[in-house]
Design brief:
alpha/beta, 10 helices, globular, binds 5-iodo-2'-deoxyuridine-5'-monophosphate
């Protein structure tokens, strides 16, 4: 099955340009770690990105929480992405009709499409959300992840909702590279969606607001996901960011090596 294949092999087989790039990078850099940097200061975001840069395949941002956002932040993130060889994922969670998300993706203060290699969207509005985002993103060689599941307790994205999300993705394989989900969702011959999983922690079981953590071994090994997304486990209060980044990188990679043939 595809989960037994190496990232490098999947890069070769992939029909989605961004998945190919992502799998290539993961194989080359030997990391399936994405760090989620939820901080509100530009300087802090850049500092953490520079520190974790050598250990990650993907930097996940929430650009709208940065209080002193400016275009220089974008320039610096792009520079760090080049310096350390990682991609950038703006976790925007678009959820509106096609015509509105076109504008939210391309315009406003953040102009997400101009710098984020990857973004994501809720399937809740129906397929128009993909059509809208694709019209902006595909010409720029961007990729989209659909939110098929969430890590938080009581999430409504389950069952037939998750199934319908997979069907939507299948109709847009040029732009939809995969899913945010807690496990691999499909193993059809001839298709390979990348799976990225938030809600990963080695020390805690969750937080006080519904977040639930599982270990890299559960997520990558048992559940067949491809990328672990880790936030506070790495940059949380009192943590040594570099030490934790290495620790999660090693745990994610060991789980991956344990599952490939
Ligand atoms: N995130 C989740 N769960 C989800 C989705 C996104 O936690 O289902 I979709 C985001 C929220 C935060 C990061 O930016 O992933 C996880 O951060 P912590 O590792 O600090 O919980």
């Amino acid at each position: 099955s595809i989960v037994r294949k190496s990232y490098g092999e999947r890069a070769k087989l992939s029909t989605n340009d961004l998945s190919k790039k992502m799998f290539d990078l993961m194989e080359k850099k030997q990391t399936n770690l994405s760090v989620a940097v939820d901080v509100t200061k530009k300087r802090e975001l850049i500092e953490i990105a520079d520190k974790v840069g050598p250990y990650i395949c993907l930097l996940k941002t929430h650009i709208d929480i940065v209080e002193d956002f400016d275009n220089d932040l974008v320039e610096q993130l792009k520079r760090l992405a080049k310096k350390h060889n990682f991609l950038i994922f703006e976790d925007r969670k678009f959820a509106d009709i096609g015509s509105t998300v076109q504008l939210q993706y391309s315009s406003g203060i953040y102009k997400i499409a101009s710098w984020a290699d990857i973004t994501n969207a809720h399937p809740i509005p129906g397929e128009g959300i993909i059509t809208g985002l694709k019209s902006i993103g595909l010409p720029l060689n961007r990729g989209l992840l659909l939110l098929a599941e969430m890590s938080s307790a009581g999430s409504l994205a389950t069952g037939s909702y998750t199934d319908a999300t997979i069907s939507m993705a299948r109709r847009h394989k040029d732009f939809v590279m995969g899913f945010v989900a807690g496990r691999r969702l499909s193993d059809r011959e001839g298709e390979d969606f990348i799976t990225m999983s938030p809600g990963v922690g080695l020390d805690d079981k969750g937080d006080s607001m519904g977040q639930q953590y599982r270990t890299p071994k559960e997520v990558i090994g048992a559940c067949g996901s491809d990328v672990i997304i880790v936030g506070r486990g790495i940059y949380g209060k009192g943590k040594d960011v570099v030490k934790e980044a290495k620790r999660y990188r090693d745990a994610g990679w060991a789980a991956y090596l344990g599952r490939i043939e």
